[in-house]
Specification:
26% helix, alpha+beta, 13 strands, 5 helices, 266 residues
Length: 266
């Protein structure tokens, strides 16, 4: 489900959670399952921004940070004019901390079917385009070769990219002293073509995998004891948490339950 963009400082609306659980099922198992579900929901709703590290990361809302003296990014207005927008949400001019404060700074990245190329869709529903003269605009309603771009990772700067057009030229900044201009006619990769791309964390594959792994690990001693039905020793808690991560959680629970019964009647 597509969710509206949120910006730094926006108040979050708390969602009401269902208060009753199925009385016929085991309370301990439900408690554990509810914890996992709540944590998974938090992951899905994570609206923080992280730096893209690989071209395969790129999907969903992004901002393209330019290599300018003042932190700026590629933006477009409602008429499709592309311009360099100064960034407000940035710490000590570090592009790795940049976050958007204006919807015009945000682009939606999608893969161009059957290729390694991507498209950039603006806030007004039209696509970033580069013509034969290297002029950028965002007026096209459909994707053609001029709306298809290739992100080339930097060989010198980890997490940096150059964006290549269909004519094998690159997006770059120019004439910063006279007023920053963005063009698409650079013939070679250089400092002026080196861009940082920030994206929403919930869309980054590795970030999502890390969060899901943490969700699997997130269970308390109390919840484990409710599932097993008795107090647990420290080594049993460690064993069950480890089994939860490794995927053998239910087998470990059964073993601990059986051990508890043997101890009771020995």
């Amino acid at each position: 489900m597509v969710k509206p963009l949120t910006f730094k400082g926006d108040k979050k609306v708390k969602k009401r959670k269902a208060s009753h659980l199925d009385e016929d099922s085991d309370q301990g198992v439900k408690s554990s399952a509810l914890t996992v579900q709540n944590a998974f929901t938090e992951t899905q709703e994570d609206d923080s921004w992280v730096t893209a590290e690989a071209a395969t990361d790129l999907t969903g809302p992004i901002i393209v940070v330019l290599p300018s003296t003042k932190p700026t990014c590629i933006a477009c207005d409602a008429n499709g004019k592309v311009f360099a927008s100064e960034m407000e949400n940035v710490v000590e001019k570090d592009p790795l901390t940049a976050e958007p404060h204006d919807v015009r700074q945000v682009w939606i990245v999608n893969r161009v079917y059957g290729t390694e190329q991507i498209s950039f869709k603006g806030h007004h529903g039209r696509y970033l385009s580069c013509d034969g003269n290297g002029v950028l605009s965002a007026n096209r309603e459909a994707i053609t070769p001029e709306e298809s771009f290739l992100c080339v990772p930097s060989l010198e700067i980890p997490g940096a990219f150059s964006i290549q057009t269909v004519r094998e030229k690159f997006l770059a900044i120019a004439d910063e002293a006279k007023g920053l201009r963005i063009c698409g006619d650079a013939v070679a990769i250089s400092f002026h073509t080196t861009l940082r791309i920030r994206m929403q964390a919930r869309f980054k594959p590795r970030f999502k995998a890390d969060k899901e792994q943490k969700v699997k690990e997130r269970i308390s001693r109390k919840e484990l004891e409710e599932v097993v039905g008795r107090r647990l020793e420290d080594d049993e808690v460690r064993r069950l948490k480890k089994a939860r991560v490794q995927g053998s959680y239910h087998e470990a629970i059964l073993d601990v339950r059986v051990k508890g019964k043997h101890d009771k009647y020995s």
